[in-house]
Amino acid sequence: MQGLGYKEVVEYLQGNATYEEMVEKIKQETRRYAKRQLTWFRKYENITWIDGQEDINKNIDIIINNYEN
Predict the structure, then answer these.
(1) Residue 52 CB: number of other CB atoms within 10 A?
(2) Rounded to 5°, angle at Cα 51 from 42 and 2
(3) How many whole angstroms separate alpha carbon 6 and alpha carbon 36?
(4) 59 neighbors 45 (Cβ within 8 angstroms)
(5) Residue 17: is it exposed, middle or buried by C-beta count within 10 angstroms (0-12/13-18/19+)?
(6) 12, 18 contact by CB (below 8 A)
(7) Ordered alpha helix ranges (H), the chain
(8) Under 8 Å CB-to-CB from 30, ≥6 apart: which residues?
(9) Cα gap 13→10, rounded to integer Å
(10) pLDDT 10s per residue in the chain (69 long)?
(11) At what angle do helices 6-13 and 19-42 cross, to 10 degrees?
(12) How is the chain split into domains, by residue range?
């Protein structure tokens, strides 16, 4: 099985990890995956980053402006 969390859930269901250990391992692996993604994307200079916490209308404007240019 591939994908975040599957392996950890199986270990928990088989009794090889506690619930708390499973949750912490999933969190840790998710952070590692996100870090690898950021590392991969940073090598591309033409990427425009948008802030998911920002106002959606501002992000839409950024996307439209980049598409038009």
Answers:
(1) 7
(2) 60
(3) 19
(4) no
(5) middle
(6) yes
(7) 6-13, 19-42, 56-68
(8) 4, 5
(9) 5
(10) 678 999 999 999 999 999 999 999 999 999 999 999 999 999 998 888 899 898 999 999 999 998 887
(11) 170
(12) 6-68
Length of the chain: 69
Question: What is the Cα–Cα distance from 53 to 12, expressed in whole angstroms?
Answer: 33
Kindly compute the dihedral angle of the four CA atoms of residues 53, 36, 42, 62, in this order, to the nearest 10 degrees.
Answer: -20
d(CA 63, CA 55): 13
Q: Cβ of 19: how many Cβ atoms within 10 Å? A: 8
Q: What is the pLDDT of residue 1?
A: 64
pLDDT of residue 48: 87
